[in-house]
Amino acid sequence: MAKDISQEEKAQVEEVIDEASGKVYLPPCQIACPIGEDIQRTNVMISLLPLDTQEAT
């Protein structure tokens, strides 16, 4: 039997915060694309993008 999940729960962003550095990590599908494309990216694709949004565009 499938669990009924509300829209709010579906839209929830799950993040992990590194307590030592305070850095926030998000799953690849929840990271906004810096060049404005509506895509779901993989870890490999994310690693290939420059960190600077101007450079990525």
Plain-language structure description:
A hairpin with a 6-residue loop joins β1 and β2 (24-25). Helices cover 25% and strands 7% of the residues. The relative contact order is 0.15. It has one domain. The chain is of the alpha+beta class and 57 residues long. The model has no long low-confidence stretch (mean pLDDT 69). The protein has helices at 7-10, 43-48, 53-56, and strands at residues 16-17, 24-25. The chain contains three helices and two strands; from the N terminus they run αββαα. The protein has a two-stranded antiparallel ribbon with strand order 1-2.
Order of helices and strands: HEEHH
Instruction: Give the overall pLDDT as a whole number.
Output: 69
Number of helices: 3
Count of individual beta strands: 2
**Overall radius of gyration:** 15 Å
Q: What's the N-to-C terminus distance?
A: 45 Å
Q: Largest sheet, order of strands side by side? A: 1-2
- Could you say which structural class the secondary elements and strand pairing correspond to? alpha+beta
Give the biggest beta sheet.
Answer: 2 strands, antiparallel
Which blocks of ≥5 consecutive residues have pLDDT under 50?
A: none
Q: Helicity, in percent?
A: 10-25%
The shape, in one word, is flat
Number of domains: 1
Into which percentage range does the β-strand content fall? 5-15%
Summarize the model shown:
With 57 residues, the protein is of the alpha+beta class. The chain is built from three helices and two strands. It has a two-stranded antiparallel sheet with strand order 1-2.
